[in-house]
Amino acid sequence: MAVLIKVCSLAGRNRVAVLVVAVVLAIGLGVLRETASRDGRDLIFLTGIVVIIGSLALALAAIYGYHPAALVVRPDLPAFETHPPAGQVLLFAALTVQGGTTVTGLIMDAVNGEEYWTFGLPAMALWLIAIGFAWWQMLRPGGVRLRPDGVEDRQPFGSMFVPWEAFTGVPYPALVVGRSKITLTFADSALVRTRGWRPIGPALPANAVDARFLTYAIHEYAHRPELRAVIGTEAEYDRLTGAWRDWPNVG
């Protein structure tokens, strides 16, 4: 478990590096597969399969098993925000290796003057669109932020901002639903601002954070307005995590 936590933490924090490694692997495997001997091609093919299966296994382990009770401290905003979802980063890395290897092979066929390489153009276009969209989604700023003025959620096609005042008088403004979703209850939904398309509606994703911890943090600031001004500071984060560890319901 400690190894999984370390890998997921590194993958989440270093998304660009993971993308670069995946692209280099894809190009390298694609070129070698086209230029190697028959026996060499079999070995390279097996190597690619191992890399892809390994990435998928890590991605699934991260998606289902890596939900740390932790947030990123952003004093520059100021805010506390969720970590990038390591599971999706690893999943998109596997997609990049698979698709990139295919695209590289098709390009090599074209360079070598293969007669029927044009039949692979639709597959190349689909792979490039899929990989491009996946990494556009992953590299853009996103996730849940707790700010001094409210809760912000940024998704690929839409965003939501809930001022703390929208929770006034609500005993339980946030409730965990399943493993990775938090539903919100508002005293005044007219205060909530949404933009674009949000398929999950008035809820928050908890893909890269312990949903109970994020729920606890929302409860804390919804009910204690005197603490909101120090959101985004290291001292307040230490206080929040300490209070969470001492909370009777933890565990």
UniProtKB/TrEMBL annotation:
Keyword Membrane (UniProt): yes
Domain of life: Bacteria
Keywords: Membrane, Transmembrane, Transmembrane helix
Membrane spanning residue stretches: 16-32, 44-66, 86-107, 119-138
Protein name: PH domain-containing protein
